[in-house]
Amino acid sequence: MSGRTRTRACPERTCVGCRERAAKAELLRTVVIEGECVPDLRGTLPGRGAYVHPALVCLDQAVRRRAFPRALRVPGPLDVKALRRHVEQTHGKT
Ligand SMILES: [Zn+2]
What is the pLDDT of residue 8? Predict the structure, then answer.
């Protein structure tokens, strides 16, 4: 609440799906837990996070280009079922 300055007050992250930069608050943080990519709804889960727009188009793009394992520094494919379900339920099918 300190004005609209272009400072670190509004941190930006890159969406792993569409590769566009967006305010951290507009993106969904995801972390990997036991080989599964899960949404970090409170932004409090430990470990490396990957940011994606909470939209199926971005999620699908990220999956297609294997952006999650790369961003999260884990080998092999990740299960994104929980993440997909979350996006579908909270943001609709677009
Ligand atoms: Zn995106």
Answer: 60
Query: Virtual CA dihedral for 88, 85, 30, 47, nearest 10 degrees?
Result: 160
Distance 61 CA to ligand 1 centre (A): 8
Ligand 1 centroid distance, CA of 56 (Å): 9
Q: Per the structure, how many domains does the chain have?
A: 1
Element (DSSP H or E) covering residue 23: strand 21-23
Residue 89 confidence (pLDDT): 93
In this structure, is residue 17 part of a structural domain?
Answer: no
Sorting pLDDT into bands at 50, 70 and 90, what band is 77?
Answer: confident
Q: What is the mean pLDDT of residues 58-81?
A: 94
Is 2 among the domain residues?
no
One-letter amino acid of 48 = R
